[in-house]
Design goal:
Structural class: alpha/beta
Number of strands: 19
Strand content: 15-25%
Number of helices: 14
Number of domains: 2
Shape: globular
Length: about 525
């Protein structure tokens, strides 16, 4: 597109925005020169000390044991949107570290990674996603901002529940607050209603019963009240403690004859369940001052509850919470009917700049239902627009954000951050070619390479600058294009180039082809 044509399309406010971007880009180039060659196996960003103010790192972990086209789609969505270079936990490992043999390998290999981090990384953010059934939809700056919005609001509510007199979260390692977010689940899985991770969960999640459909006990109408272990985000220190507690629970309760003995979700949800049991009992004792009737405290299920054996000095608080409203994580099971590809191209009559989409589907089956609006968050619109401008020189005219289709949870009114396809994989295979960035995956790869090489800042949130924990290999002979990208294998496995990981699956990634199988 010629410069004169572009000028005609830009308002004075858009020119001001572009001017700001050029200034930021210039400062970023000064602060983050291209990294020099080094021999350490994982190329950790070391430019943070050149930024004024607090700096923290953002880690992206994908437990994955071997090659698959869906792993490549997960990597591609992360690269295209500007996430840190991924670490593949458990890559080609054997024995109890082989995720193809046991899901518990995920816990062990991620624990190894967390244990390898120095104390200076305790406040870093770690995002762990299952490697074979997750794709991203929104950029990392918006995801990080949402994480802090969600956890701070939840911690304030916990403080009030614990008897605090303000909306400030409580301090101290044992104080109830929320720093770790898991994806939501509409049923307790593995199903065993006597298990603490099933019955001790919070009753009030801030969404009324019946919002997902009639309150009739059908899976897709349930509230997403339970924990899913395929998507987790939190500070490195708290994640380390939570994973260690999960390994302890595995050691204490592992039964090779149990049908779900290798379910990482079962053990993690029970760690969370013990936390919620302890929180509830502490709260109830403030009112009853003696024995508490568990059927009153936890009235949901008419089953024999297996009580956790909690000793007075036992640590039970791990700051675990659930992303109930799917601001970050959208889990598929039971949610197909509340996901819509929306185009946010309607504007308010007041100023014509606030865009929204109208939802006409009557999910709760309400009498005299009235269609309602879902507004497009301004920070998401700005972030997507910045990414699209990166590929304009290569692809020509780019769409406005209001022309894009963004998959939205129409109950919680969130354009979710990433999609986790629990159960069958047909949905995520169809979703791949519908994601807003799919037409630009290859040029986005190429445009993101300089930033992924140098470790440029990816977000400003919580009063800190966030930089990627890992950058591209500086020892690679390829420095441009898609084959300059790739991932790191564990903490000691070295660099895996895009060509090695995904060269055989480029039709599935760039063309959207899916093999005629669901493996």
């Amino acid at each position: 597109m010629q410069f004169s044509n572009l000028s005609n399309r830009l308002s004075r406010w858009q020119w001001a925005g572009l001017g700001s971007l050029f200034v930021i880009a210039f400062i970023t180039l000064i602060q983050y020169p291209t990294a020099t060659s080094r021999s350490d196996p994982i190329s950790v960003s070391k430019n943070a000390d050149k930024i004024s103010g607090p700096v923290s790192k953002f880690h992206l972990l994908l437990p994955a044991s071997g090659y698959h086209f869906r792993l490549c789609r997960a990597l591609a969505s992360a690269i295209a949107l500007g996430y840190p270079v991924s670490v593949l936990n458990g890559w080609m490992k054997e024995g109890d570290l082989d995720a193809s043999k046991t899901h518990l390998a995920k816990v062990r290999t991620v624990m190894q990674y967390l244990d390898s981090l120095p104390p200076s990384s305790d406040d870093d953010l770690v995002l762990m996603i299952d490697g074979y059934d997750v794709v991203f939809q929104i950029p990392p700056d918006v995801l990080i901002e949402r994480y802090f919005d969600i956890t701070k609001a939840a911690s304030a509510r916990l403080a009030l529940r614990a008897g605090g007199n303000s909306t400030e979260s409580l301090t101290g390692d044992e104080a109830p607050r929320q720093t770790i977010l898991f994806g939501p689940e509409k049923v307790c899985y593995p199903v065993d209603w006597g298990r603490v991770g099933c019955w001790a969960v919070p009753q009030d999640i801030g969404i009324p019963r019946g919002a997902f459909g009639p309150d009739d006990g059908q899976l897709h109408h349930n509230l997403p009240r339970w924990l899913n272990s395929g998507t987790i985000m939190g500070p490195a220190k708290d994640m380390r403690l939570m994973f260690a507690a999960t390994l302890d629970r595995i050691a204490q309760h592992y039964d090779p004859n149990h049908d779900f003995s290798d379910s990482d979700q079962m053990y993690m949800s029970d760690v969370w369940g013990v936390q919620e049991y302890a929180r509830s009992m502490n709260e109830l004792r403030e009112y009853f001052h003696g024995e508490v009737d568990l059927n009153v405290a936890f009235p949901t299920y008419d089953v024999e509850k297996v009580l956790p054996n909690v000793t007075p000095d036992q640590k039970t608080e791990y700051h675990i919470g659930i992303d109930y409203r799917s601001g970050l994580f959208q889990t598929r099971a039971g949610s197909d009917h509340i996901l819509e590809m929306l185009t946010y191209n309607e504007t308010t009559e007041v100023n014509g700049t606030t865009t929204f989409a109208t939802v006409s589907q009557n999910i709760p089956e309400t009498p005299n239902f009235t269609p309602y609006k879902i507004y497009l968050p301004s920070n998401l619109a700005s972030s997507i627009a910045r990414i699209l401008r990166l590929v304009e020189p290569a692809v020509g005219a780019i769409p406005n954000v209001t022309e894009l289709r963004l998959e939205t949870n129409v109950v919680t009114k969130n354009v979710y951050g990433l999609f986790h396809s629990t159960g069958g994989k047909d949905y995520i295979d169809k979703l791949w070619t519908q994601l807003w960035f799919f037409p630009y995956v290859r040029p986005l790869f190429e445009a993101m390479v300089p930033a992924l090489q140098s470790g440029r800042a990816i977000a400003f949130a919580d009063g800190r600058t966030w930089v990627p924990s890992h950058t591209l290999s500086t020892n690679s002979s390829v420095t441009e294009g898609v084959n300059a990208t790739g991932a790191w294998a564990d903490i000691d496995g070295g660099w895996l180039s895009w060509h090695e990981l995904c060269g055989a699956f480029e039709a599935e990634v760039f063309d959207g082809y899916t093999p005629p199988m669901d493996d």
